[in-house]
């Protein structure tokens, strides 16, 4: 097969009208709200109408810690969905939407790669169905109403130094990270410090992705803490009376988007919260809807399994009342080599020993996933330079842990390259062997929850947190937030908080720098490192090369 | 007929699928990009394919100076479109899109009123098809790239005190009017003053509405002046290399939106620039497309005829190479009374003399419109409290000027109430009596253009402008911008620059406070008063009452 770029493959896709994709899941065309001919939202009415149906099987795709070599988690999610359809299962995939802003810095991301992609790729990297714009509007309406409340007399007595609700924009704009607003005199309000985050970092994004329906959404929006009074008592979004209007702005965005894979299988693409300060999964509504209309749902979680799968289990599954029937852990020979100490420029040469050394990282993820009571299979996402001996080394290692690693060639061959994995996953899922449990109960204290994750998932010896942080956690417990799960924000590159510590480190400490209460989303964010919530553009942003060519095609975006 | 609210009437509308609306204009369904079942964009390919067809007749709807009594310009535009269809003409209307932000301050606006409305009303007041979000993104991408350019070494030598390109948000947020950005240290750039306007005030909005096609759009985006160097030489968007990516972001937004009236007639709703610092008309693309597919196109211009019709003729028609075959000037008895000195609370009582006094305002608009060489008809938009004697007074006055005033009851009766006007307008349009010319030629000096409008339209004695402003105009002429039309920004409530001077004042002066070059849009903005480009929210914003009720309907938006 001649080597084509992702965008060339995507543009050559033989797309079916979105009504035909919906029909594969028995979604009638009047229940699809089309956006052009190849995208649609599934109507809220339809979603209510299928609420009582039994759920299909849920497959989570996660990965080893990411390396610059790339793992192909989304590619494998798409490929496995196509593979399950190929072996006769009615399967749908569920993935996240892309953020617009970063596409103008680095080149935009494909949804998948090679012959395992979701289309239309250009739309998905640009405005798509407008969900993120709706989130931006809802977030900033609350911001405007807060300053407006202060302007007109501040009846709620908000301390303008303690307004924690910032503004958002779906753009990489470092100039907006820290600003002073309300300058220019009496007519413009009371000057104060503020700033912007990128839209995917908005708590509204996390809320939209965790809400079960519009009523739940509005309730959670009302629960947002927007700032504090001088006596440190919280002020809620509900006090500002913004929750109703925000829900109205999010009404359409709450309906999941349906698109298709290159093989014309259904793909839900909905929501896209950060995987550090939020939980990093597509929306609960999309996953639950897919489970009602498909026999198999393949979904993914952000970053490696230490962050993504842990949050999927402890936050999303806990809140949504769902659980995976099987988990796929994606690994590549190249990433194993990097974990084994090989530099990126040397990845082309065979190095079985480096692969073996790097497998320690994979091994720990397998153990961790199993600790949730769910069966794990390793997908070796094949790369053309991989040698048989290297692939065999991974297989042997995984077998030694009592699990199985299956070579997958969906990138090059589409569904035909991944039928072995699809078959094995369907056997496992049908066997009913999963016995899911979360890692910690709601009742555990917040600090113990952090310790549990640090020790059982990261294999750290201890969690370091000063008195101020421990006091803060205790205060929240007293205020009734002790039952919330914790959302860890740390580097994705290591089990530890040191991005350079690859492999399977032990004996490290997890220092907690800060804790934040996302009362609307319903979790405590635990920050263990530098977290950037508003990226900047590089010296030569990709935007400089993006343009429409004479055929009206977009150039430079990919 | 029992009195129902606009929203009740709109919700009870018997909408047809948008494909059927398109079929009325022979737009095939594959050329319609649907957004839900009742909205669609007309594809760029289709628009190119009809470029060589002859144009239909163009009818401009304008009005007297607005008063708090309301005139019903959009209502009459919608009604006349329905009326023309009722008498057997293939007619479409072209109106502007609504801005999202202001809906959360005051209640949202209907598109029309009574039984002359465009639907779906809720969508049109919320995200609609995402055009304004795309404009916001394109605008702010340029903003981010400017600060990014400065951050990475400022090779273009931009004076950070002279960055004239601000940021935008589709929100009423006074706290963002004046800010200091790039605070927080080296990683966030060089602190400077900046601020946000509301999206409709963006030059990108004016550009989108004046561009003939995507190539023209990209060229105009490149022409935007983003700021100046210390030597006062301009820096262009093209120098920042943002024009291509901005055009990509606007690719879908450039395609006009098709919706329908309550009587299932086609309505193009596209673009919505300010009517003061911009030209206040729907997009050229929508109007020109409508002229290719309909025999009659009814469109409107912002504010009263002194601002809206003047700009429609001198800016939009000049640039687009179109011209109206007839002009409708909307007046109401109530507005005549207010122009005649009656207070709003006294409008219920008959007062023929006040009507007669107020007619002076109408009379001058009739004269002005005729000075463009186009025939004018007055539409008296009937209100239930109008007495026969009052209506007759308006008719007599208009007849005395050699024109005709026709009573219209479309608000109460839909198309059946406006067949007289529709019939008369079609006679005039078919007669070919229009002999359109702009008010001034391209070659006239910029200051003379201002004087021509001030003297011939506003009937002022003089234009007051200090040396700095005159020098600035001369500099722009030397730099090659002398051929541009001027875009007047003054109060809409009077022919003069004093909003309290109703009727038909003479002998006044027009003081020019400031001039701005919109090099991308292609006009010189002449500011003659306080112009607010970022509104604020009122003490009790309407957002506080907006919510979804138990049926999932939006409450409080209207």
Automatic annotation (TrEMBL), chains A, B:
Q: In the Enzyme Commission scheme, what number(s) does this protein have?
A: 6.3.4.3
- Where, by residue number, does ATP bind? 67-74
Q: Does the keyword Nucleotide-binding apply?
A: yes
- Give an example GO molecular function: ATP binding
Q: Where is the signal peptide?
A: none
Catalytic activity from the UniProt record:
(6S)-5,6,7,8-tetrahydrofolate + formate + ATP = (6R)-10-formyltetrahydrofolate + ADP + phosphate
Record key words, sorted: ATP-binding, Ligase, Nucleotide-binding, One-carbon metabolism
Task: Using the UniProt record, name the top-level EC class of this enzyme in a single word.
Answer: ligase
Q: Please, one GO biological process term? A: tetrahydrofolate interconversion
Alphabetized SUPFAM superfamilies for the sequence: P-loop containing nucleoside triphosphate hydrolases
UniProt entry tagged with the keyword Protein biosynthesis? no
Q: In which pathway does it act?
A: One-carbon metabolism; tetrahydrofolate interconversion
Q: Per its UniProt record, what InterPro entries does this chain match?
A: Formate_THF_ligase, Formate_THF_ligase_CS, P-loop_NTPase
One Pfam short name: FTHFS
Say which family it is in: Belongs to the formate--tetrahydrofolate ligase family.
Quote the HAMAP family the UniProt record gives.
FTHFS
Name of the molecule in the record: Formate--tetrahydrofolate ligase
